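The records we work with from here on pair a chain with its fold. These numbers are not coordinates but entries in a learned vocabulary of local backbone shapes. To see the layout at work, look at the sequence and tokens printed below.
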Amino acid sequence: MSTNILRTADGWWVVRGDRAVPVDTKAVTTAELIADRGAVREAARSADTGTPVADLVALSPVTTPCRVVAQMVNYRSHARDSGFTGDIPPAFFRKASGSVSGPHESIVRPPHVKFLDYEIELGLVMGAPLPIGAVVEERDLSSYVAGLVVTNDVSARDVQLTKTQFYESKSYPTFTPTGPWLTLLEAEDFAHLLDLRLKLSVNGELRQDRTLADMIVRPAQALTLLARFQTLDPGDLLLTGTPGGTALKAPPKPVEKIGALLPPAVKWKAFFKSQARNPHYLHQGDVVTATIATPDGRIDLGEQRTPITDAK
């Protein structure tokens, strides 16, 4: 069975229900904690009644610096929302690891960003090196991936679209809330990945709700494609795409064709004027809630709650 790990300023904890038991480890980084699975198992078996989880302040269970890589348009529902038809070529981009933040920290909207969007994503946390040229089969996944985390690929759409710039638009500080748990998996748990359901709500309104069965490129294939040009190390993080339901959606095809004929400045002015009427973008005071779990609770990555705050 999977084991949920909480990280605080005081160290690492195994979560057991509503209580947490400290892990007796010298590990400081996520990679070091993954390498000390013996200490994790010892804490999981401990007779210690533990500390109430509610009394602990969770940090991101993925420590930085690390590589943060993400897949683009990797759910069929998101592809439809984005106006894609036919085959979707696999694509990756990088995020600055400085964007990683805790599961209950505020997401801070920079002053120049008007269209702030959410993207719940399953994060894969590497447990072993992924070398160039690696071919990862489904049966090999547990040899490379140690665990899973809830992530939110927060996006400044006005930066992303006008500059065609993924790195900047998704890398501002607090733009990758991560956690609350690092869910370490056993080999047999990987057979249940497609049952994982991703759900994201804003102020209690459900916006995204899909299982991994909606994925276009699944984790083993994604790692194989990534290994053509990118190495990964233990503790690195791969975000595996978001389902449909984000605030940003492609305009109707006739509108898109007309827009393509306009000068860029005119096109974007018209597009963002229409987007200003879209109530689904994030604003100060909103609260984003994200969960990922299987229906039977065998794998449960916990609940992430992040308020939106405008930069001072």
